[in-house]
Amino acid sequence: MASTSIKTPISNLFASFSRKTADYVERAKLTEHTFMIIIALIIGVLGGFSAIGIRALIEGISDLSFSGGGTFLENVIAAPWYLKILAPVVGALLFGPMIYFWAPEAKGHGVPEVMQAILQKGGKIRPRVALIKALASAITIGTGGSVGREGPIVQIGSSIGSSIGQFFRVRPNRMKTLVGCGAAAGIAAAFNAPIAGALFAVEIILMDFAVAQFSPIVISSVMATVVSRQFEGDFAAFNVPKYFLVGPQELIFYFILGSLAGLVSYLFIKLLYYFEDLFDNKLKFPEYFKPVLGGIGIGIIAIFYPEVMGVGYDSINLALHGNLIWYFALILIFVKVFGTALTLGSGGSGGIFAPSLFMGAALGAAFGGLVHTLFPSITATPGAYALVAMGGLVAGTTRAPITAIIIVFELTNDYHIILPLMITCIISTILSSKLSRESIYTLKLLLRGINLKEGTQLNVMNSIFIKGVYEKDFNKINVTDNFSKVVNTVITQPGSEFPVLNNKNEVIGMITMDSIKDYLFDRESLQNVLIAADIANTKFEVLTEDDTCQTALDKMSRFHLDCLPVVESEKSKVIIGMLCSADIQEAYQKEIDRRELSEHLASSIVMKENEANIHFLEGYSINEIKTPNSFVGKTIRELNIRARFGVDVLSIKQKTARDEKIIPIPNPDFKIQQQDILIVAGEIKNINLLKNLQ
Question: In the predicted model, what is the mean pLDDT of the chain?
Fold first, then answer.
């Protein structure tokens, strides 16, 4: 009770301060573009300092874990064998419970979580994610986990951008831009690469090169780079000797290198999610202790191959300078693939950017060493191939070839290798895409039911709950009905699937035409022998009102059924209705029509403020109505306005002391206030009923 009483005043104080700040900004009469530029500057600065902070934290924990006067790799090599196992295990014991109890979003490589927040939550990320991600990732990397620091910096920057957007209560489309600003700032500060940071945000995070708010993203990226350079100097992340294309004939080898990069990318993606599935679904072990298993595995590998630990920048530099023997580099590819998949799959926190660069450098060193030995006069040294393959692996795993090309260029400040780099990145992306439709980021979203490739349809299906879609009047069969009665019901009544109910109105099975067709020839002899319970198909799943239409379609497809029963709750089998694929299709089409109508009319409604209503079809109208008292303080989802009143809320006018703000197409979690004006569309009789509501 004490914690609640303390938390509430603090929350109220924060909310009050947020409202006052937002009102002050509004009274300052800043244009929206100016406001976004100022916020982008703030996010860039904070993102830059966050990157510096997490790097310092990683170095501190690394020095504590593997003390010594050399580089991280040298210190790991010099460490006794038991410390190589003990350090990652202790680290796992620290960050495992931290992630599980405080911020599960901090688990893994972070970028898919940011993408999911943009797609499903309007860009909202909990502020605590930044802190937990920083601590968990620093411990994972500092104690020897085989992950990178760039993914965490991206998630931290995105969390900062989202938190600032929530503080100023920006609209959802602007919130997504601010999240992109944070991601761009993170990459730019991590690699000292402002162009790559901006491209990463639009190509991977926002997935939209035509984003209208590109300028704030660029500004955040530049500011983060300025901060990083001010404190850590203006230098490339890797010290690379000058390389060049020996001749046009050498491009053949880069085509082959691109194909190999695509294959390794595919292997990395598949092995990573194999381990995630293994640890998440098949190992019966406390969730917060699973990273310990990964820590033990990494420690054992590090006894023989210490290069697997940490971000791997020391090994990358060895490859770029041609100091890795080709067959040893070949082994390191698979060691790093396995080590990174094990660390992340078991529940570690860190990114995949640095491991991808490591794998690419090792692949290029192995391939370049081999071809340079065989064809020394027409090929560059192995370091050139290591440099190019770094971009190939990033492109193949992320499916973002433009970002990969620019990021390697900015990492090295060397333009001479750009042609082989472009070829390798494109070939790698094409081959990896052929082998697997999903990137290392989108596959994680797909496993959570978010299919970017299907686009609007799947996302719309995930937004429609079956509560207002299913039929409450349906034909049913009693469990004791004899075969003759079952046949008559199936043949004479509309529908393709019929639920079989017991005397408690619980569904125990389904009967279809396929269920009875094998018995029809013996109908006369079986009519008093068989009952419904004998022929009911018990292989089916039920739905609840809180399930989405996409969930329903997935279950229908899994059991080859066109209809499924809707029950009271997950723990109850008492039937309340039936949902069929035709109902879902109708609901989908209505939702698409509603969205198109809303998007088309929202702006015109704002312009025509002097018109109280607009008639757009016979018997239908768009009206402005005052908020009924019973609506105040409730969300659109709670009110379920469309199902209860048969009208759609197109937009909302929010009146303040000095101005009026329009919220077009409000999301279901929007909370209605006393002074709000609702702009609704629907049948005139339904709108009139809503107008008269108190």
Answer: 83
